Task: structure prediction
Amino acid sequence: MIFATYNIHYGVGADGKYDVPRIADAIADADVMCLQEVTRGFPDNNYADHTAEIGKRLNRYYRFHGPMEADASTVAADGTITSRRRSFGNAIVSRWPILWSRGVMLPKTRMADRFDLQRGYIEAVIAAPSGPLRIYCTHLSHVGAEQRLPQVEALMKAVQVAPDIGATWDGTASETFMFQEPSLPVPVSAIVAGDFNFTPKHTEYPLATAQLKDAWRAAGNSEEEVDSFPREGRIDHVFVTPDLAAKVKRAWIGYGIVASDHWPVFVEFDL
Result:
């Protein structure tokens, strides 16, 4: 299985060009991908739905969650309202069905002197051929550790307690309910990926690696002169539960891909 995480910079490349199809093409070989800075319903790009565009181009299953959400409605000359919402967030795109998912908000403290956004993550279970696989896709605050530390703590706790919380429904409903499907799995194996806005040198990194393994290091890679965001260091990560760390075959960064201001990070697993 090839996994990718990619901050797509709302469809705008390092060359300033808006081109969502080339983003899809850049990561087309990945079986499962976590995307950040994905938008839906913004008037600037004609209300485009990036997740749907990428999912349809690659013929994949997809799930979007936009923690930052606001109005994008329009009113015609005759007074007719077209109700629209615009949102900014994360997406999971998968070659295999996404059995269940939930979008979750992360902690946020208002900072009147600086710009920040509501952050969140998608928790999902994918029907991989090797068995169900738990995926978390997130994008933490760019502001600093004061915002990110509570977010890392909340995310790590969610990964840990997921088996106790369960899926988006439990058990089997009675015959009078609208569906009688059995409850879905919450597997032990999990991948937690995204733009974390911290490098291995930051104080947030040990909070993640106390519970999870860094796939980049599990692949035996060096930290010397490594960037996933130019001049900012390795801030896009793929963390995995310990059972998956031993199954990491290799990890690499898609240097030279100009479809975003970040470079995609790829991990190959032997599942």
